[in-house]
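Action item from last meeting closed. Structure (304 res):
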């Protein structure tokens, strides 16, 4: 088994907010401790689940430092540093390198829909600016409206030494298998889709960057342990057990992380609300979350 460079289960952390909408430092620290004690090998800070588009530059730097200080080397800390602006992405990624995070997560630029050559140059410019900082690509066409093609991923993997992994959330197992077939030996594939993690492991993935691990982290970790031990029946059982939670967290009527924040708050793990233009899950959406948690066996959902 190939050792996952940053650990098998990396949780894409929500950003807790106070009732006034500021970053809640105490809740951040509590959430980090909770995740590290429930299956997380590392944390993604200021990713999509962390509502990165509505965090200021200063808030991102503060969160990177706070999470790094809280983790104290007990797991990887990876910062989401890129946007549709290459120059700004280079600047923030350089600051992350200075802070001493373990890696940077670089998402396909949203909205502008660059060509594959544009994507290559964008990611190469960022990675070249921080030669000693490992970089992970992040392909999520459902949010960015552009797929990072297999050929571009492999071109970056072979040409840029510190581009060391990709988070694949395109729902395309063939693309994952093609990346595995053509990648350098030490380049790694992480699932970016909780519901497809087990299939992605089967075509060469090493782990997951997960949303649902906030709630099912112990089972997510156990599924990886079973899979890599060759106990595929147990891995399949755990995968099936977690799927209703995954479905509840990714409802078609409301974007993540609204259902996740409803779940965490309902379980007494205070993370506050969301920043506009995202809004809290409504009563119907929250009821779906509540039912999934109850069926899963988590403690009763708190009433507001």
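Sequence:
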């Amino acid at each position: 088994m190939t050792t996952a460079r940053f650990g098998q289960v990396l949780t894409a952390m929500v950003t807790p907010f106070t009732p006034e909408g500021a970053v809640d430092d105490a809740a951040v620290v509590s959430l980090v401790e909770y995740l590290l004690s429930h299956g997380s090998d590392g944390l993604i800070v200021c990713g999509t689940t962390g509502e990165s588009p509505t965090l200021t530059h200063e808030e991102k730097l503060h969160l990177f430092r706070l999470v790094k200080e809280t983790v104290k080397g007990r797991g990887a800390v990876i910062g989401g540093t890129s946007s549709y602006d290459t120059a700004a992405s280079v600047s923030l990624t350089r600051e992350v390198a200075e802070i001493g995070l373990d890696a940077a997560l670089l998402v396909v630029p949203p909205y502008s829909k660059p060509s594959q050559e544009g994507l290559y140059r964008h990611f190469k410019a960022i990675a070249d600016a921080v030669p000693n900082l490992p970089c992970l690509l992040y392909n999520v066409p459902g949010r960015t409206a552009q797929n990072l093609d297999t050929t571009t991923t492999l071109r970056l993997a072979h040409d840029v030494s510190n581009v060391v992994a990709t988070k694949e959330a395109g729902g395309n197992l063939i693309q994952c298998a093609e990346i595995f077939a053509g990648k350098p030996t030490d380049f790694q594939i992480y699932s970016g889709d909780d519901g497809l993690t087990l299939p992605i492991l089967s075509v060469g993935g090493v782990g997951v960057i997960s949303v649902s691990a906030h709630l099912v982290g112990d089972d997510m970790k156990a599924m990886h342990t079973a899979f890599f031990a060759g106990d595929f029946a147990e891995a399949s059982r755990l995968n099936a057990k977690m799927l209703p939670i995954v479905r509840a967290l990714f409802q078609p009527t409301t974007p993540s992380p609204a259902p996740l924040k409803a779940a965490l708050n309902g379980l007494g793990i205070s993370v506050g609300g969301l920043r506009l233009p995202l809004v809290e899950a409504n009563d119907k959406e929250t009821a779906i979350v509540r039912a999934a948690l109850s069926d899963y066996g988590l403690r009763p959902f708190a009433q507001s």
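Note appended to the action item: The beta strands are 9-12, 42-45, 76-80, 103-107, 135-139, 163-168, 188-191, 207-210.
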